[in-house]
Write a structure and sequence with these properties.
The protein has a single domain, classed as P-loop containing nucleotide triphosphate hydrolases (Rossmann fold). The protein is built from 7 helices and 5 strands, in the order E-H-E-H-H-E-H-E-H-H-E-H. The protein has helices spanning 13-24, 31-39, 43-67, 87-94, 104-113, 127-145, 156-169; strands spanning 2-6, 27-30, 73-76, 96-100, 150-152. Helix 5 crosses helix 6. The longest helix is centred in the first third of the chain and has 25 residues, at 43-67. The radius of gyration is 15 Å and the shape is globular.
């Protein structure tokens, strides 16, 4: 079973994914970390040197590899993964997708608390610019995110509990 955690940047995919993996004993993969290991540089450097399109292709290639996994695994995707190529369809075929949903205001705060300047799409934005960016980007991404098998909301702890139950129930109701 593969559980894909999707959602906007700073929605807790990596933090919650690691916690669920710890609780379940499942493997954990962060797609951004996998790309950084493969490429030998940070996501920010890849964006700067090769552009977003090249990064999205690398992301898709890594996703394809992960989808061939045949053991229990939690995958934290990048916020844009569901929105490019046929990635959302691929994830829904290969496993169970879980959308970690937050309001634009909550995401703005989470981004500011999680090293905003290390995130290529939001580095250097003022409070107002950041909220506008999050609101507009989330509106464009929601149609992809809402294709997830599950949409969950709550604190990080509540989300970890719900996703752990989902993993241990083997596709059971949350």
């Amino acid at each position: 079973m593969i559980l894909f955690l999707i959602g906007f940047m700073a929605s807790g995919k990596t933090t919650i994914g690691r916690e669920v993996a710890r609780r379940t004993g499942w493997a954990f993969i962060d797609l951004d970390e996998r790309i950084e290991l493969r490429e030998g540089r940070s996501v920010s450097a890849i964006f700067a040197e090769r552009g977003e399109e090249a990064f999205r292709r690398l992301e898709c290639d890594c996703l394809k590899e992960v989808c061939r996994t045949d053991y229990n695994i939690i995958v934290a995707t990048g916020g844009g993964v569901p929105c490019f190529f046929d990635n959302m369809e691929r994830m829904n075929r290969a496993g169970t997708t879980v959308y970690l949903k937050f309001s634009p205001a909550a995401l703005k705060l989470r981004i500011q608390l999680s090293s905003q300047d290390s995130r290529p799409l939001v580095a250097g934005k003022s409070d107002e610019e950041l909220l506008r960016f999050v609101t507009e980007s989330l509106a464009r991404r929601e149609p992809f995110y809402t294709q997830a098998a599950y949409t969950l909301q709550g604190t990080d702890e509540e989300l970890a509990e719900q996703i752990t139950a989902l993993a241990l129930d083997g596709h059971g109701q949350v």
